[in-house]
Q: What sequence folds into this?
């Protein structure tokens, strides 16, 4: 046995091992950690406060962007924390390019656009750049969308903290005061009067101790192909192959991958396995395509920087929205917006195609945790039953819940009251002033 290994094992048997040190702003403070058989016990430490704000939004995906914009525009000092280097989440970095759920069927059997407000602003700006394609569930260019979202944040005065991974909740009894975040600056605390969980995975309400459903769903990874306008259809031996959906850029298509079913999106080793598998598969599939007659000029333009995780934790909130609610024009007094449908589903013993599916209201109570004060939840992890996953997780719905949450947070701060006490009539009035669409038949 080597001398170093012998000493390490002896220390382990003794029950403790001193590990490393930490430097905080030039001051070296020696830290020790106790290494046990199955875990490492960290020493207590003081965590510096990085920022304090009125509203803290955790996660910069579609819901986080809408929440931060709506709160800041109402005069709130707003901070958004994002783990990646861009806004838009899976919409941009995940290359999930369609803005789904923009339309639904009215009670008069009319296909109606229901996604407006901040969502409408974003698509209007993209149209002026010629970077959106289609009217129903339009498909955007990811880089243009990143730019537009960044510009809107800058205009609204939102403080965006990139490259910071939320790592815990700062709790005072049942009240959340902020979060801990890890970054190159070390562990830091960000505090606020109201926190909005837009992590997609419900990380914040999980740390706060709320109950939730942990769902397993398919995980995939998207990509874009270039040179698709150079396919030689007259090449000897040419056969048609699917190249994906046309994007706003000529010759660039969107390659959709369903991936592997029933995957755990909270297991880092599983995510690592899928990441490697999909990276290899996409490259090899494109190379096989390039070997087909006529497809020699097609190439892999890029792959998503984020895995396509569709759902993980779903909040058990003050109200759990049901699939029946969305199929029966259920009316809610505390409605904060309306979403649509984008796919065929099974309901009441039959398959209901997208064009026959109603639009549906989202109640404010579905954004409220049962126990934690000062916390709201928006995006794919708000409170709904699992059967509604295919519509509740979509970009359009995320934008609606985010705008509702950000506006409610601002009203709570202005009124110096808890988010659960927000006047929902006032909330709806404010959202209508922001351009959010409501079903006028169900006020």
A:
């Amino acid at each position: 046995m080597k001398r170093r290994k012998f000493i390490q094992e002896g220390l382990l048997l003794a029950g403790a091992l001193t590990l490393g040190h930490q430097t905080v702003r030039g001051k070296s403070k020696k830290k020790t950690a106790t290494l046990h058989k199955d875990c490492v016990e960290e020493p207590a430490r003081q965590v510096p406060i990085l920022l304090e704000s009125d509203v803290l939004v955790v996660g910069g995906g579609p819901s986080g962007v809408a929440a931060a914009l709506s709160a800041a525009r109402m005069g709130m000092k707003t901070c958004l924390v994002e783990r990646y280097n861009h806004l838009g989440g899976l919409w941009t970095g995940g290359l999930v390019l369609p803005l789904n759920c923009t339309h639904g069927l009215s009670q008069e059997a009319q296909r109606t656009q229901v996604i407006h407000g901040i969502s409408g602003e974003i698509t209007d700006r993209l149209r002026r750049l010629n970077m959106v394609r289609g009217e129903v569930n339009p498909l955007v260019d990811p880089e243009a969308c990143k730019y537009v979202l960044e510009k809107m944040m800058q205009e609204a005065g939102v403080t965006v903290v990139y490259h910071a991974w939320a790592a815990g909740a700062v709790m005072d009894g049942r009240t959340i005061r902020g979060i801990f975040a890890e970054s190159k600056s070390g562990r830091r605390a960000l505090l606020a009067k109201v926190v909005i969980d837009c992590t997609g995975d419900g990380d914040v309400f999980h740390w706060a101790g709320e109950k939730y459903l942990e769902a397993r769903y398919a995980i995939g990874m998207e990509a874009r192909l270039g040179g698709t306008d150079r396919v030689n259809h007259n090449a000897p031996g040419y056969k048609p192959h699917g190249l994906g959906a046309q994007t706003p850029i000529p010759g660039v298509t969107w390659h959709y991958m369903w991936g592997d079913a029933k995957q755990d999106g909270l297991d880092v080793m599983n995510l690592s396995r899928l990441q490697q598998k999909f990276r290899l598969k996409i490259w090899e599939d494109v190379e096989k395509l390039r070997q087909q007659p006529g497809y020699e000029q097609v190439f892999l333009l890029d792959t998503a920087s984020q895995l396509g995780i569709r759902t993980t934790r779903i909040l058990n909130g003050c109200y759990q929205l049901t699939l029946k609610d969305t199929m029966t024009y259920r009316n809610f007094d505390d409605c904060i917006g309306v979403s649509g449908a984008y796919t065929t589903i099974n309901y009441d013993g039959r398959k209901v195609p997208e064009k026959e599916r109603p639009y549906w209201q989202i109640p404010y109570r579905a954004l409220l945790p049962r126990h934690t004060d000062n916390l709201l939840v928006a995006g794919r992890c708000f409170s709904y039953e699992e059967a509604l996953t295919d519509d509740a997780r979509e970009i359009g719905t995320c934008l609606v819940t985010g705008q509702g949450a950000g506006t409610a947070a601002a009203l709570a701060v202005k009124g110096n009251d808890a988010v659960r006490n927000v006047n929902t009539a006032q909330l709806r009035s404010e959202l209508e002033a922001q351009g959010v669409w409501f079903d006028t038949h169900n006020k």
In short: The longest helix spans residues 268-290. The chain has ten helices and 28 strands.
